[in-house]
Design brief:
The chain is an alpha+beta fold. Helix content is 27%, strand content 37%. It has a 7-stranded mixed β-sheet with strand order 1-2-3-4-5-7-6, sandwiched between helices. A hairpin with a 2-residue loop joins β2 (53-60) and β3 (63-71). The longest helix is centred in the middle third of the chain and has 15 residues, at 94-108. It is globular. The protein starts with 5 loop residues before the first strand and ends with a strand. The site of coenzyme A has 19 residues, from α2, β4, α4 and α5. It comes from Nonomuraea roseoviolacea subsp. carminata. InterPro entries: Acyl_CoA_acyltransferase, GNAT_dom, Ribosomal_N-acetyltransferase. This is RimJ/RimL family protein N-acetyltransferase. Residues 6-153 form the N-acetyltransferase domain.
Length: 163
């Protein structure tokens, strides 16, 4: 069932416990720029978006269930989208609904034209999120990411304001 009643809002300092809990998931921990193992780390993660991009807490029934963000905004009105959801909320369409809402904000409020994202080719769930949120696949970037000495291909997707 698609989740339609999610909300996006600014991250707040009192979300730090929810951020800390979310990053205990090994699938998420590698996405953080540093290990998020204390409340201080979680506060640092929230603060790290300042001046880098716009990150929104995704809430469902008032509970934080994920993050969507647009960063790397450049002079050509392009932006880079990222997202995660907490393990307990997965498989319910939270991420696609949140990315859809983020795209609407980025195009209409922020005036962006092109939103890009990339997912490892061995992350089909993320690919489904991109497709369901209207991001067309644009090709494979070979060996783009390295984790534990192993390089991974990444599929690039993008959605335009005119799509
Ligand atoms: C990828 C991710 C954001 C998907 O979020 P979500 O809110 O579960 O999105 P959806 O509910 O639309 O599920 C996406 C796909 O996950 C799979 N899925 C279904 N149930 C699931 C479950 N309980 N747990 C995990 N994945 C599930 C399905 O293949 C689904 O696609 P479908 O619509 O074709 O069935 C989430 O799994 C996540 O945060 N993963 C770790 C971080 C990550 O990979 N971020 C993206 C980096 S590019």
């Amino acid at each position: 069932m698609l989740t339609t009643n999610i909300r996006l809002r600014e991250w707040r300092q009192d979300d730090a416990p929810a951020v800390l809990a979310a990053f205990q998931d090994p699938e998420l921990s590698r996405q953080a720029p540093w290990p998020v193992v204390t409340l201080q780390d979680a506060l640092g993660w929230i603060a790290s978006w300042d001046g880098v991009g716009h990150a929104f807490a995704v809430t469902l029934g008032g509970r934080v269930v994920g993050n969507v963000a647009v960063a790397r905004i450049d002079a050509h009105a392009n932006g880079w989208v990222s997202y995660w959801t907490v393990r307990e909320a997965r498989g319910r369409g939270v991420a696609p609904a949140a990315v859809e809402e983020l795209a609407r904000w980025a195009f209409r409020e922020r005036g962006l034209f092109r939103l890009e994202l990339g997912h490892r080719v061995d992350n089909p769930a993320s690919c489904r999120v991109a497709v369901k949120a209207g991001f067309l696949a644009e090709g494979i970037e070979r060996g783009k990411l390295v984790y534990d000495g192993v390089r991974h291909d990444v599929e690039r997707h993008a959605r335009l304001a005119t799509d």
